[in-house]
Amino acid sequence: MIFIIAPPSPLIANLHTDFLTATIIAGLVAAFGAFIIGFPVLRLSGDYLAIASLGFSEVLRILALNLQSVTNGSLGLKGLPNYTNIWWSWGWLFVTIVFIVSLVKSSYGRALLAIRDNSIAAEAMGINVFKHTLLSFVISGFFAGISGALYAHWLTTIDPRITTFGPILTYYVLIMVVLGGLGSISGSVVGAIIFAFLMEWLRAFEQPFTLFGRQFPAIQGMRMLVLSVLFVVTMIVWKRGIFGRSELTWEGIINFFKRIGLRRSGEK
User: Fold this and answer.
1) Is the separation of the CB atoms in 98 and 160 below 8 Å?
2) Confidence (pLDDT) at 266
3) Which of 15, 28, 143, 187 has the fewest CB atoms nearer than 10 Å to its CB?
């Protein structure tokens, strides 16, 4: 790893471990940070919760810029090994899905579903809403830390000034979840696939192109414009996303194609 201007602290400089262990440690550190932030923030609700969360994220960014001996300041950490590949990405995706599915089917998951449907009724039934919400926040922080470790070893750098580590990445994740379906695990995966496909397909619109024999210049930001419109349309047409709270199952896929076959046979 390459450090510029200021050397790192001895603790960071002399710390060497394998990629899997480092990734898990990143998840645990993020989970601890989520606990520290979530303990006061989750006592708020509505707009106040969103504002406080964004405020803490900005505080962390400023700390990363100023802790020169640990983060190398605005220059960041360069030269990270390029460990992240398709196998690590798909492997962690599989682990995440299995964990979340098992979590939802557990008693803790059922308590979370009750809180999602009606937090007041859930609390009246004896469910500790704050404790369950905080624990879910910590779990989310753990997997966010895993994602950050994978992403950093894909970019081979960690820089607080990189916009993809800023709010824009949060919006990307939000679009994926809302597009696929709020409350649907498989819907979130499908939403991420659709989002990734559109991001690559719409890349051509940010390059000079010809349409009906007329030359058009490159339009920077066109991808985000189209995705934002898609996000708004999805919220209007499907308030809970494409899948809503339903899950993608083999039975559902078979029934879908059966309905298409029945429609075609009826038209004939």
Assistant:
1) no
2) 58
3) 15
pLDDT of residue 161: 66
- 170, with CB counted inside 10 A (0-12, 13-18, 19+), is middle
Residue ranges of alpha helices (H) inside 42-184 are 47-66, 68-71, 86-105, 107-117, 119-124, 129-155, 167-180
Non-local CB neighbours of 216 within 8 Å, separated by 6+ positions: 208, 209, 210
The answer to whether the beta carbons of residues 226 and 205 sit under 8 Å apart is yes
Return d(Cα 13, Cα 36) in angstroms, integer: 26
- Report the half-sphere exposure of 262 (CA within 13 A, side-chain side): 6
Q: Evaluate whether 26 touches 151 at the Cβ level (below 8 Å).
A: no
On whether the CB atoms of residues 19 and 84 are closer than 8 A, the answer is no
Locate the domains of the chain by residue range.
1-161, 166-268
pLDDT at 183: 78
Q: Copy the structure tokens of residue 88.
A: 């690590």
Low-confidence ranges of the chain (pLDDT < 70): 1-15, 161-167, 209, 211, 250, 252-253, 255-268
- CB-based contact 181:188 (threshold 8 Å): yes
